[in-house]
Specification:
3 strands; 3-stranded mixed β-sheet; 570 residues; 61% helix; mainly alpha
């Protein structure tokens, strides 16, 4: 998981009450778009078979995600991306959707009903990106898993020699599929999407020739070393070739990344299970943006952030991590579901595109590991650029909360404890990022870092960044805004620097669901307020957080009523 983009979003909840401000959600659509009636013949003994078949197919069709979850039987495998393989994948998803639509949830246990809703959500989301968004033809980023091999190096789940063998198998399989990338992509491509993708593939080439080669290139006998060198260089050349081609296509690219209002509404339904008018969806963010802007500007008139030196950056982060953990325990913020702790480390060279991230073992991993990575600025940069990159102590505090305590690290360890295989394997974009973003504000409200008001200043600026992601997504995909116009709002309304504004606006062209940070935070806060109103003096923040995190990471609407029942608030 990373601060930049940690999880894919999924979610078409069925028959669940929505969070306050959202309508009751419809039944899942059948593959042809009609609402599928529930039929009793698919309950009973047929449900476990339908559940297992759907999840097994979803994992097999996305081995990169399966590896991230800790399912290493998928090591060495890549998803086939030829046209016939993609068509077969769509057919499997449509068949799974029909099977799941035929399950009568009324006869199932609560956990089985949640599993059913999450599987319906995953299938609907996968179909949206494959069919409605036509990712294989429009988004070069769809093919990045072919080149993504860091899990074999980052996670110490097996001896390095064994992981290196699987990495080689992965690279050989990826080479066999790489030729399909140019065959599938349809030009003209979106200019900003192609521009960013070109940089990404150039980075893969550098990473393969650099860190990957250094980490595993010397392992094995002479024949294996030679084989690895040949295959690894061939995959790096394939990445280089794609980068060159994408740069050329970007120069003559268009605005084809725009989803339009119709597909954007489908995205909301597929990713979040929301069926609400776009003006209402936009209004919930604009109100939060205005509140954060007022709070930020009032604080900025009185306080300023304190810089942190590069030489003390990692040690300061380690101190903050320990302090955040103590605060969570001492104040009963949330139960820590495991005794292990995340270790602060400098980001390895091949991950330095990201300023901060948490790299942790997945919920099915046999051995646990967790590293809180922080990237230090290049010492060759000018001093003012290095200071700007590191940000303030308040920025580092917010990042530590988001990534570790009680953010992604704690939520990920709770997901290990989810009661079913489906709940362990499923993640909603808005739940994962919404929880981490909510934690930033909640911890400040509870008094963590209260000795320095500059910590709240940094939190509000971080919230404004996420508000402008929400606004940019709507503007770019439903209102005809250009990247330049979206970037201007990051600067004018959300107090971001010009470079960050451009980068964040570009991200909105290929990650329209990045409204999930603010949406998830607002949904959690609304659910908490509802529980507080119902329980009064009986409300416990720690019990609320435990109930929220105990079912994995589903779209909030799926567990809204269940959390309230478990708290005795309904």
């Amino acid at each position: 998981m990373s601060l930049a983009a940690c999880a894919g979003g999924r979610g078409v909840p069925v028959g669940a009450s929505a969070v306050p401000g959202s309508p009751v959600l419809p039944a899942a659509p059948a593959p042809d778009g009609r609402t599928a009636p529930s039929v009793a013949h698919a309950t009973g003994s047929a449900w476990p078979a339908a559940r297992d078949r759907a999840l097994d197919e979803l994992l097999a069709d996305d081995p990169a995600n399966a590896r991230d979850l800790g399912l290493h039987e998928f090591d060495g495998k890549v998803a086939p991306v030829g046209k016939s393989a993609l068509a077969a994948r769509v057919e499997r998803l449509q068949a799974a959707g029909a099977d799941l639509a035929g399950v009568d949830a009324a006869g199932l246990s609560e956990d089985d009903r949640l599993d059913l809703a999450e599987l319906r959500a995953q299938v609907a989301s996968a179909l949206f990106w494959l069919v409605d968004a036509d990712s294989p033809a429009r988004y070069p980023q769809f093919y990045e898993p072919l080149f993504t091999v860091n899990v074999y190096i980052d996670r110490d789940y097996a001896p390095l020699d064994e992981r290196a063998r699987q990495l080689l198998s992965h690279e050989e399989a990826a080479l066999a599929e790489a030729a399909h990338v140019r065959e599938n992509l349809v030009v003209p491509l979106s200019r900003p999407v192609a521009t960013v993708a070109g940089r990404n593939f150039a980075g893969f080439a550098t990473y393969l020739r650099g860190e990957v080669a250094r980490a595993v290139g010397g392992l094995g006998d002479a024949a294996r070393r030679a084989r690895f060198a040949e295959v690894n260089e061939a995959l790096a050349r394939a990445a280089d070739d794609l980068a060159v081609w994408l740069r050329r296509e970007a120069a003559r690219g268009d605005q084809s990344h725009v989803l339009g209002a119709g597909r954007y509404e489908k995205l909301l339904l597929a990713q979040e299970g929301l069926s609400m008018p776009l003006p209402e969806f936009e209004r919930m963010n604009e109100q939060d943006l205005a509140a954060n802007k007022r709070a930020f500007e009032a604080l900025a008139a009185k306080v300023s952030g304190k810089p942190v030196a590069a030489a003390e950056y990692l040690s300061t982060a380690a101190h903050m991590t320990r302090a955040a953990r103590r605060f969570v325990v001492d104040h009963g913020i949330v139960t820590l579901p495991s005794d292990d702790e995340a270790t602060v480390r400098e980001t390895p060279p091949y991950r330095r595109w990201n300023a901060a991230s948490i790299e942790m073992s997945g919920p099915f991993e046999s051995s646990r590991s967790a590293f809180y990575y922080l990237t230090l600025p290049d010492p060759s940069w000018p001093a003012d650029q290095r200071r700007a990159y590191l940000g303030s102590l308040g920025d580092l505090l917010g990042t530590t909360i988001h990534e570790v305590y009680p953010g992604h690290f704690v939520q990920g360890r709770w997901q290990e404890r989810a009661p079913t295989r489906v709940q362990k394997a499923s993640s909603s974009y808005s739940f994962v990022e919404g929880w981490a973003h909510y934690a930033e504000q909640m911890m400040i409200e509870q008094g963590f870092g209260a000795e320095d008001p500059a910590n709240e200043l940094a939190m509000r600026r971080g919230a404004l960044l996420r508000n402008c992601r929400f606004a940019a997504s709507i503007a770019i995909h439903t209102k005809g805004a250009t990247v330049e116009q979206a970037a201007k709002r990051f600067v004018d309304d959300c107090h971001q620097d010009v470079a960050t504004a451009r980068e964040q606006a570009e991200r909105g062209t290929f990650d329209p669901g990045y409204f999930a940070y603010t949406l998830g935070k607002l949904q959690i806060m609304a659910l908490r307020a509802e529980a507080q109103r119902a329980l009064g003096d009986r409300f416990s923040l720690g019990r609320f957080h435990d109930a929220l995190l105990s079912h994995g990471a589903p779209p909030l609407a799926l567990i809204h009523d269940r959390v309230l029942r478990e708290l005795g608030a309904r």
